[in-house]
Design a protein that fits this description.
Layout lengths: L1 H26 L4 E5 L3 E3 L4 E7 L4 E4 L6 E16 L2 E14 L3 E5 L3 E4 L2 E4 L3 E6 L19 E7 L10 E9 L4 E9 L6 E6 L7 E5 L2 E15 L3 E5 L3 E13 L5 E11 L3 E5 L15 E10 L3 E2 L5 E11 L15 E3 L3 E9 L2 E14 L3 E5 L3 E6 L4 E6 L3 E5 L53 H29 L1 H22 L4 H20 L8 H10 L4 H17 L6 H21 L1
Parallel strand pairs: 2-10, 21-28, 22-30
Antiparallel strand pairs: 1-3, 3-6, 4-8, 5-6, 7-10, 8-9, 11-12, 12-16, 13-18, 14-16, 15-16, 17-20, 18-19, 21-23, 23-26, 24-26, 25-26, 27-30, 28-29
Helix pairs in contact: 3-4, 4-6, 4-7, 5-6, 6-7
Amino acid sequence: MSLTNNISFSYKNSLVLLLLLLSTTLHSQVTFEAKVSREKLGLNERLRVDFEMNEDGDNFRPPEFEGFRIVGGPNQSVSMSWLSGEKTFKKTYSFFLKPLKKGNLIIPKASIDIKGTTYKSTPITVTITDPIKKSSDPDSPAFDIEDGIHLVAEISNTNPYVNEPITVVHKLYVKPTISIRNWREINYPKYNDFWSQDIDIKNLKVEREMFRGEEYRYVVLRKNVLYPQKTGKLELEPLTLEVTIDVPTNRRDFFGSRITTTDNQTFSSRKRYINVKPLPEKNKPEGFTGAVGKFNFIVQPSKKEVKHGESLDVEVSVTGQGNLKLFNLPKPNFPSSLEVYDPMHSENVQNNPKGLKGKVSDKYTLIPEYRGNYPVKPVVFTYFDLESETYKQITSNEFTISVIDGPNRLDNGESDDNGNDISYAPKMEINKKSQFKYIKSDTELTAIDNEDFLGSKLYLFISLIPFGLIPFIVLWKRQRDKSSLDTRGNKIRQSNKLAKKYLSEAKKNIGNKEQFYISLEKALHNFLKAKLSIETSEMRKDTIKNLLENRMVNSHNIDAFIDLLESCELARYTPSTSVTIKNDYEKAVEIVLELGKQI
């Protein structure tokens, strides 16, 4: 009986252990799957596709979405929670797709690398039917918004050389029947394989243009000049915007005009690719450092004749248009008898859609040590010319630096490093008998009566000073450690300082509209950070309004603050008078004081 019980007990323990191991294995299993918002939709509807994983991964590779056009995304979200000591993690990449044709369309596999292993999602089939009839709800939009708004990336050249500048222009096309209230960037392309420069757009200008056979209004949002840094097929990441739109509905007011409603939509530019060609290896000169464009080259001394002890500058400069900041200037070979200091590099370069234009230079300071003539040999600069697609070389002129006085160089009658004859300096005769006559050989010592410093009161006082400072040092260190641990308090204090600083800058820039509103917006943001402990990424109007309401702030002041934020966002792109700017500053000071009292 005892043996049977032992066998039964052992069997139960083994079963429990097996179940525990199985549950642990299942719990730790990595999942990566695709989900769609609907499996059947009309040609005029939108599809959301989510790729979810329960462990963080890298190198996410979405499918091509053949038969669809991406109108939003990829948007990334991450959530993490702890329940009964167990961590739950979820990361999602979301796409919003517009079907381009009817039939059964397939969402292909996506892949991602998690902990060194590649995981792939399962393909999903979606059925696309005829367009769905619009809702009869009077508050529904009177037309499809997304068909009237397009975010487009225009590329000047899709097949450039390495380091050849290309221009990427992001345009927002809008039908004349649609009114846009505002927009904000959700995802901005990083251009990882490029050296990029932004072209500043000070005032957004609305223009008209034919797009896809129809007349559209458009505005240029961004201009970037890119210099590809590697060869092959390179991806240009899309720009994603969240656009606030005033949409006409099917309802009309008393006078027969359409009643509008506000809607938020997400738009993305299409992912683009360029094929980058390597620079030709044939006839590539030795010493080529990567200059690509159209350039002039010169080596110029500030003066060619100097006196001993005087200095002169030699400037090595390249002017023209191309990748001016992406190559090294050649270094002249100066004679060894000239003391040469490290060059001072300077750049005077402007960015434009065709690339960088201007001048880069290295200025060397030289100080001659001896009298003589010192020739500086020609310097060769090599660049790749984009017009002729060939390598070109420019050789500087040789020049001579003459030092007209000073000591001669003693070199046993030989010529110097540059072949110049140098006169001899007369050698001094040394009289060995009298060479030490000025040095005394007898020493006389005199006794000095002086008090012992080591036993004096002054020595005792100086010795006690460090011990007296110890308590103050300990208190100071404790206070500093306490202050460094108070992260939230430090952030609040820093934000308060920045708010005051930018408000002061705004006052100084009342005559400069753009700088004024930039400073004012920064002041308002830092004020919110200090008072509400809110981060810049959370600065949405609805979030700000809810936080201020929770602090029992007067609704009138909340609305005034939100209006002021909107004014800062829009005023940079709309005409404003000096009176309006001054009123906005006074309003900002008044609102900040009122909110400070109520919070």
